[in-house]
Design goal:
six-stranded mixed beta sheet, 12 strands, 19% helix, 19% strand
Length: 203
């Protein structure tokens, strides 16, 4: 991927890192395939333990430092080595774990519009929350700002939920995520927002 250090056209980015975000580098990443074009943003939701917010557990998970014995739920994910490019907290604060130039491990087995292995060509964005609990206004604002910055730097023209790229296996960001509101504050066309035009079961 091209090095954008010092590129005046992309002042918010340095080697794939978003300057306004707090950097928490994860070891869980790899190179994107040669000639990969980053065209998709995947929205997820996460909370650790489920329904609890504000702690360090998400950061610990993505940096392989989570104490698996600290909560009964953690036994279900023991040994997981995963990451996303970004996490947006309930407060709207943005954390970045992997350079966008690199391949984060967020999508798993996945397919979008006939193209498998979404990790290869997507950016993973986790919202702190549950699938059936409303997300915070600050999160939508931060997401809209981040998506705009990503779109200016990379050829991203589709936004999908994890539920759309892995139907039947994943259901996040879920029914509580307001796709219409995201469209209202971003002006993205309906055709580019999976939550407005693609039932998860048909993705």
């Amino acid at each position: 991927m091209p090095d954008d250090t010092g590129n005046p056209g992309h002042p918010l980015w340095r080697n794939g890192w978003y300057e306004p975000a707090r950097q928490v580098p994860s070891p869980n990443f790899g190179p994107r395939p040669a000639q990969a074009r980053i065209t998709l943003a995947v929205v997820h939701s996460i909370s650790l333990p489920p329904g609890q917010y504000g702690g360090d557990e998400i950061e610990q998970l993505f940096t392989n430092q989570l104490d698996w014995g600290a909560h009964p739920y953690f036994e279900q994910i023991r040994g997981a080595e995963v990451s996303a490019h970004f996490v947006i907290r309930r407060t709207g604060d943005i954390l970045q774990f992997v350079s966008v130039d690199d391949r984060a491990w967020h999508a798993g087995r996945s397919c979008w519009q006939g193209q498998d292995n979404c990790n290869d060509y997507s950016v993973g964005i986790e919202l702190e929350g549950l699938e059936d609990t409303p997300f915070e206004p600050a999160q939508y604002t931060a997401l809209a700002t981040l998506l705009d910055a990503l779109k200016q730097r990379w050829p991203i023209h589709q936004i999908a939920g994890h539920e759309h790229i892995a139907p039947g296996r994943k259901r996040d960001p879920g029914s509580a995520f307001d796709w219409a509101h995201l469209q209202a504050i971003t002006d993205w066309p309906t055709a580019q927002l999976a939550g407005l035009n693609t039932p998860a079961r048909n993705a």
